[in-house]
Amino acid sequence: MLQSRASPGLHGIKPWLCENLVDLHTTVFTTYDDKRLMAYSGAIIVVGTAKRITQETIGFLIEMDDTKTLFAKQFYPSTVATWHRQDALKAIESNRPLLSVMESRERAAKPPQRRGSKAIVRELISAEFTKKNGRFEELDTAIQEALVLEASIFGGIPQIVERFYETAFEIYNSSLRAPDQTRRLIALWQERNTVIRDHTKR
């Protein structure tokens, strides 16, 4: 078992992390090569956490062979991934793949209760983010407010969430550094929030 933080070993999972808008410098992971833990006959399992430029924290498990990703899973809540050492021991003791044990932990974890005004809109937006392995509740408050306001006025939640990720990917693929990418994304949605509020005053 080897624990790393943005080390050269990151290379193998970098494509998957980039697909998920991850700030690579925030990635903390541990690798396992014990065959007893494999679910897909891979050569290595990578378990860790990372932060997207959208400020969402993700927990993940990736099983790989020597050349490609065989399986990738995100956990909600992301803290499920921080229990991998205990779960690895339990997996070996119970003769189960690590993935199976961690999925059991995920099912047992209760999501936080959402309260306050416009709760239904927030829950619908959250559900749409979940379809994309996103975590609406972890976005910057300004982005959350803009998304809720736009959805409340115009509807079309799937399209709104899709537009958010299209914008995030455009920024992620720019030449900006990760912290600047996050600031730019927040600024854009603050501007969008202002435009929508001005529209409602007319």
Feature tags:
202 residues, alpha+beta, 2 domains, five-stranded antiparallel sheet, 7 helices, elongated, disordered N terminus
Strand proportion: 15-25%
Largest sheet: 5 strands, antiparallel
Percent helix, as a range, is 40-55%
Query: Oligomeric form of this entry?
Result: single chain
Number of contiguous helices:
7
| Integer tally of domains | 2
**Shape verdict:** elongated
**Spatial separation of the terminal alpha carbons:** 61 Å
Q: What's the overall average pLDDT, rounded?
A: 86
Q: Which structural class do you get from the secondary structure elements?
A: alpha+beta
Task: Compute the CA-based radius of gyration.
Answer: 19 Å
The strand order across the widest sheet is 1-2-3-4-5
Quick recap:
The protein is of the alpha+beta class and 202 residues long. It has helices spanning 14-19, 84-94, 98-108, 119-131, 141-154, 157-172, 178-200; strands spanning 2-5, 28-32, 44-51, 57-64, 69-75.
Report what the structure shows.
This protein has 202 residues and is of the alpha+beta class. The chain has two domains: 2-108, no CATH class; 119-200. The protein has seven helices and five strands; from the N terminus they run βαββββαααααα. A five-stranded antiparallel sheet has the order 1-2-3-4-5, covered by helices on one side. A hairpin with a 5-residue loop joins strand 3 (44-51) and strand 4. Helix 2 packs across helix 3 (98-108) and helix 6 runs antiparallel to helix 7 (178-200). The longest helix is centred in the last third of the chain and has 23 residues, at 178-200. The protein starts with a strand and ends with a helix. Mean pLDDT is 86; it is low at 1-8.
